[in-house]
Every structure is written in C-alpha cells, then in structure tokens.
Design goal:
1% of the residues lie in helices and 44% in strands. The protein folds into 3 domains: 124 residues, Methylamine Dehydrogenase, Chain H, CATH 2.130.10.10; 238 residues, YVTN repeat-like/Quinoprotein amine dehydrogenase (Methylamine Dehydrogenase, Chain H), CATH 2.130.10; 64 residues. The chain is flat, with a radius of gyration of 25 Å. A 4-stranded antiparallel sheet has the order 4-5-6-7, with no helix packed on it. The chain has a 4-stranded antiparallel sheet with strand order 8-9-10-11, with no helix packed on it. It has 479 residues and is mainly beta. The C terminus is likely disordered. The chain starts with 5 loop residues before the first strand and ends with a strand.
C-alpha cells in the first residue's frame, strides 16, 4: 500500500473504485510470480520467484511512483529467485533460494550478501522487529541479526527443530509452541529459548491466548492449561470442559473462549476455573478451528457450518454466511476484524461484512481467476491479503468501508411498483454515489441486503433500478 492506492499480486493491479475493477500496472514489470512485497517510505519493492508454483524468479523490482512504473534492481543480486523481502528503515533485506540473504542500503541500486553465521542458505522467511531481523531457512532453521545483517546467530533450541505453531507474548516475553514438544520461552528477543512445560501433561499445543498476566494454552487431548507466572508452572483448568481437544482460544477482557473438536465453544469468566458451554445458535458444533475477537464481538469459524457471530459474550450465536459460497468446499481460511467491519478470505477471494450484519460482499472483482486467500491483516489504514500463488495484495480500508452521510431523505423518496414481483425502481435525488439497500418484509425481517449499488440514469436522474430472480431472492443490479 502506498498512499490511498491498492496493489495486488499476479502481476501488479491497481484499484481506485472500491475494488469494483482492477487495472494492471505492469509497465516495466516482466514477472508474474510475486513472492513478497515490502514498502520503505514511498518506495515499493517486489520480490519474484523462489516459491513452489511461481517458477524461476526475475529478482527485485522497485516503484517510486505508486506503481505507475517498475524498474528491475538486481545489481549484485546473484540469485534472482527471491523468497521474501523486508525493510528496516532504509535497509532492504531479501531472502533467496540457496544463496542466503542480501542487503541493499541504497534503495536497491546495489545488493551485497550478508550471510555470516547463516548455516542454511535456502531462506524462505524474513521479519523485522525493531532493530532485530529474523530469518527462517529450510528445515525451520531460525536466525537473528541485531546489526543489520552483519552477523547472524542461530536461535534453534535442540527441541525446537519441529514445526512452530501458536505464538504469543507478554511484555518482552515471547512464547512459541513447538509441534509435540510443548512451549518455549524467550526473554531476550529470541536469542535463547527455554522449555516451560512444568505441569503440562500434554505437549501438543494447538492454541494460545493471553489475558492480562495469565497465559492459556489449548492442547490436543489435555484440555486447557493456565500459567500465572510467565509459563514457569502450568495447572489444568478443565472443570466443566467436556472436550479435551482444543482447537482455538480467544479472550475478551476476563472472558476466555475455547473452541473444541466436537463440543462447540466454552466460556470461562474466572480464569478457567469453571467452563460453560455457550452453543446457543451453533448449528454444528464440531471443529471450531478459529476464534477471532473484535471489540466485544467474537467470531467462531467452523469446518462444516461456516462462520458465526456473538455480540453477547457467547450467549447466542448467529450464522453470518449470507453472500458467501458454500463453506464446503470453500472453508474460511482467514478472518480479520477492523472496528465494525469484518473481512473474510477463502478460495473465492475477499469478502466484506459491514456493521456485522446483512450479507458479505465480494470485493475482489478484477483479480486473476480463482485467487485463493490464505491470510488477511490490517495495518494502520491498509488491509493486506496473502494468496496461494499470486503474491500479496493490498488496499486502503477507506476505499472499501467509507460511507458518505447524505443527511435525511426528503419526501422525494419513492419506490415503484409497490408491491413488486421481480423488478422495482427506487427514486430519490439523494442518490449520488454507491448505495446500500435493505428491504424488510412485513415481519420486520431483512429479506434483501445489497452493497455498492450505483444509480442508473433512467428518464430522470437519481433512479436506482433493481431486478430479482423470484421475489426478493437474488438481486441483479442493472446498469
């Protein structure tokens, strides 16, 4: 993201109209296998290749004009299969396949290898945290540099050579759950790790959440454990918890939620001492594999019955799947909350739900065919989407969620014909930009909800015409 423009992988695309259409902006950009993207000030860096299914890479590209033009910047980059890139101030680091890490301090004009201490040169991940740079190489080999890549130090504990799953932190303490080896703690920004499993009877940790000074972990067979002393000691807290396989954990203040394999969602308001099932409204209670909070709201994502929302601390759940494709075979891969808006990613793209109500709206018109979304994140005023094989896409949130207050509607508002069988026209001089339309039935239930409807100029200005297949079922807006 640069300024108010949004960019996308699979080549580079730009949208300036709320995602209704995307325009390729690939002037000077000759690669479509985007592996990574990083921003430093007004400079946008894109790495290509280096990942399965992306093919051979063309190295690094730079744009300094919001993507209008791109320049290949590979001087000194002896391996153009770039797996990752990250910025730290004006420094740009890239990871490559089998050639390690390269650094540029002059906006990509030149690159030099910075691999002292790196033992595995197939580097597929880089991350910056303050003055620290972390590198992940093939085989889960983790390294740290605190001096701009001058020297790298291995952070691998003897038992930390397996897959790392949940991560969490309290202050300067970082926790990492490692496959079947339980939990590890670092108090020095990852330089050293110690096992903190005293009291854990099950070391397969699927989930981790923090509530104040308390740490909760969910295990595969041992239920939930609590530590009140930074992980030094753990106690089981499973009273009332009928399922010992915990897939997900989340917290809202003192309320701790646990998603289980076969018994739905449980709530504890006393630090896990007692749990109560809170499944009213959950259609199918198996496999609650994600719990995501947004303010006082909590979302539960299930494998077989889609996504649910609770606004009353789990007392009731409502399905929020309208507008989404069938969750089987299109499960939710990612969900992120920003204020009163929620974004969901699946194999069909990105969907938006505003004010936690109505229907989801697809906001990826113009993406390459079958773009699967696997991760979503909101940072500042931007939203980022990670895809299966088309790189990272990004948009300004204001393009997706802004609403213009046009004031009260005067008496010029009219709908005809009324009642309507399969077509109606809404007319008001207030229609100037994209509109949201909700239609209620006589019972006060919402029968139709559509976003981003644009006024159609008929015989008079400000007319919005809607057509339906059947009565108030599937709406087609006619331009």
């Amino acid at each position: 993201m640069a300024g108010t423009d949004a960019f996308a992988g699979g080549g580079i695309f730009l949208s300036t109209n709320n995602g209704l259409s995307w325009t390729p902006i690939n002037n000077g950009f000759k690669s479509y296998g985007i592996s990574s993207i990083a921003i430093s000030g007004t400079n946008i860096f894109v790495g290509t290749g280096g990942v399965v299914n992306l093919g051979p890479g063309d190295g690094m590209f730079l744009s300094s004009d919001t993507g209008t033009s791109w320049t290949q910047v590979n001087n000194g980059l002896i391996n153009t299969n770039v797996t990752s890139c990250v910025t730290q101030g004006t420094n740009v680091f890239v990871g490559t396949t089998n050639s390690g890490i390269f650094l540029s301090t002059d906006t990509g004009k030149s690159w030099k290898g910075v691999n002292e201490g790196i033992t595995n040169t197939f580097v597929y991940g880089l991350a910056a945290l303050g003055t620290n740079i972390f590198a992940v190489a093939e085989g889960e080999d983790l390294s740290l540099s605190t001096n701009s890549g001058g020297i790298w130090v291995s952070l691998n504990h003897d038992s930390m050579s397996n897959d790392i799953y949940p991560l969490g932190s309290i202050g300067t303490n970082i926790f990492a759950a490692v496959d079947s080896n339980g939990l590890f703690l670092s108090t020095d920004t990852g330089k050293g790790w110690v096992s903190v499993n005293n009291g854990l009877s099950n070391n397969i940790i699927n989930a981790l959440t923090v509530s104040g000074p308390n740490i909760f972990v969910g295990t595969s067979g041992g239920g939930v454990f609590l530590s009140i002393d930074t992980g030094k000691n753990w106690i089981p807290v499973n009273n009332g918890l009928s399922d010992s396989i915990i897939y997900s954990l989340a917290s809202i203040g003192v309320n701790i939620f646990a998603g289980t394999k076969s018994s739905g969602v449980f709530l504890s308001s006393d630090n896990g001492l007692n749990w109560t099932a809170v499944n009213n409204g959950l259609v199918y209670k198996n496999d609650v594999y994600k719990l995501i909070t947004g303010g006082t709201n909590i979302f539960a994502v299930t494998v077989f019955s889609g996504t649910f929302l609770s606004t009353d601390t789990g007392n009731t759940w409502i399905p929020i799947n309208n507008g989404l494709p069938d969750h089987n075979p299109h499960p939710t891969n990612a969900l992120v909350v920003n204020g009163t808006d929620a974004f969901l990613g699946n194999d069909s793209g990105v969907f938006l739900l505003t004010n936690f109500g109505g229907s989801w709206t697809l906001v990826n018109n113009g993406f390459p065919y079958r773009t699967s979304i696997y991760s979503l994140a909101v940072s500042g005023t931007n939203i980022f989407a990670g895809t299966g094989n088309r790189g990272v896409w990004k948009r300004p949130l204001s393009e997706l969620t802004s609403v213009e207050n046009i004031g009260a509607v005067n008496n010029d508002f009219s709908i005809y014909p009324n009642p309507a069988a399969n077509q109606l026209t809404i007319h008001t001089s207030s229609f100037r930009k994209a509109a949201t339309v909700s239609i209620m039935n006589v019972l006060g239930q919402e029968a139709l909800h559509r976003f981003n409807l644009t006024p159609t100029l008929l015989q008079e200005s400000g007319a919005l015409r809607l057509m339906f297949r059947g009565f108030l079922r599937e709406c087609i807006f006619c331009n």
